[in-house]
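Hi there,

I know you've been waiting on this one. I reran it after we fixed the sequence typo, so this is the corrected version. Both the input and the resulting structure follow.
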Amino acid sequence: MAQNKGEKEKSAPVKSKTALREEEILAFWQEKNIFQKTLEKSAPKGEFVFYDGPPFANGMPHYGHILAGTMKDYVGRYKTMRGYRVPRRWGWDCHGLPIESVVEKEIGLKSKKDIEDFGIEKFNDIARSKVFTYVDDWKKVIPRMGRFVDMENAYRTLDPSFTETVWWVFAELHKKGLVYEGFKSMHICPHCGTTLSNFEVSQGYKDITDISVTAKFELKDEPGTYFLAWTTTPWTLPGNVALAVNSDIEYVKIKIGNEKFILAEPRLSVVKEKYETLEKIQGSDLVGISYKPLFDYYQDADLKNKENGWKVYAADFVTTEDGTGIVHIAPAFGEDDLNLGN
């Protein structure tokens, strides 16, 4: 058949000698069932338990999976050569937002309320039918990278037996007093209505130039004298319940006009007005001093541990690299803040 004008002749890609050699070795492993034989051979040191965190089943493998899988593989191989029996069972993570997002887009849902209106049971049925879309692709990639792992007897997090096992483990931990209820400051996804993992938050992290403010907090027993606290999140100031200083830092009390201010001595450079230095104060001597709340909307509320609020506390995360050496603490808005608040 004559070739059309302008049509370029295409040839099949030529595999390198390395790739051909790899395929030859893989074929030998599969033909001789080498992985299974490593499990059947004598294991004088017993069994080495290897837990393999499962990937999501509804996406293609990427570089991160290949990298982590390679490291997992050489752990198993090393322990096998050291005399252990190392079963390596593959798993599929079927829960969570990845599959939810796929189904939402497919049926045109815009919010979590839409899922409830659509019907949770129907939604779950669709998710269950879609979650293993790429399993066959995984079964090609993982063996091709040379990894020894049992993919045919994989566990699946959607199986009732798996869920029941997780609940059993949790119950046993609870019986032993190893489970406690607490609070953690987390970022929220407004669309999903769930918290975001630290990894998800850090993915969007970048340095920016932001507006900051320096707020003054009047000492309760010394009217006209203020702690100066610098913050890049002024929207958290209504949640302020404490101030933090570093016990090892030296602070100063200065006078500007008729007002007095307290800040870290190494941060005096931030003061742009003419001032008079009145005294130096060790950070540890500021701990326990009470100040007036910036906002009075809950000063009459019957709050638990209210007597501990609006005081100065010591914290080793306070530095003099920027700001005033005094940190405003709002436990509802930050991890360090919440830890100090607790």
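Quick highlight: Residues 34 and 138 are 20 Å apart (CA to CA).

Best,
R. S.
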